Amino acid sequence: MPNKARILLVEDDRALVELLVFHLSREEYDIATTADGEEALLLARETVPDVVILDWMIEGVSGIEVCRRLRRNPDTAQVPIIMLTARGEEADRIRGLETGADDYVTKPFSPRELVARVGAQLRRSRPALAGEQLRYADLEMDLVAHRVKRSGETLSLGPTEFRLLRHFLERPGRVFSRERLLDAVWGHDSDIELRTVDVHIRRLRKAINVGGRPDIIRTVRSAGYALDSEGAL
User: Are 201 and 157 contacting, i.e. CB atoms less than 8 angstroms apart?
Assistant: First the structure.
């Protein structure tokens, strides 16, 4: 089964945190919480979340500034951000969205509605979370049969390349640094050097681009790699 979606909840109202954790846990999400903006940025760097639920008014760095910094960081630039706030004025909503928030929820709100909004963001950013088939462009990965196809043709991948491609397929379009890929595919305790990531990226490219097909792994200079069909155009 696909990995659990990681939710970073940044909120300083303890009662609300408990309520949201209860509802989000029922969806089997992996949830990290903090009431502090600086800690939120640290947590997001250590383990990139799949969705950030971010209160506007928090301790230390404001929610708006946290949103701005997350968007500036290549590792978190494409992570969906849902802002929570008691500020319901149109100008505030526009400011939040222009700063980089993907959605905006005004307090008080229904926890069930927020959970639904989280699910909607995940379907856009990681559409394969709930299934056993991962698809992107003309690539298909069957997690049960451990098989990969491109344009219907079965590809031959080694186990490391399979794990690497799975990580990309679960988060298409997102740019991952070599360090992030090393942690995700080889594990936090791995002694493997960063350049090994480049070696396996080359092997993966060779395997999925067989037959002269367009290269859909995009190299982002000084940032890392992404699964991106637009890079093949």
Answer: no
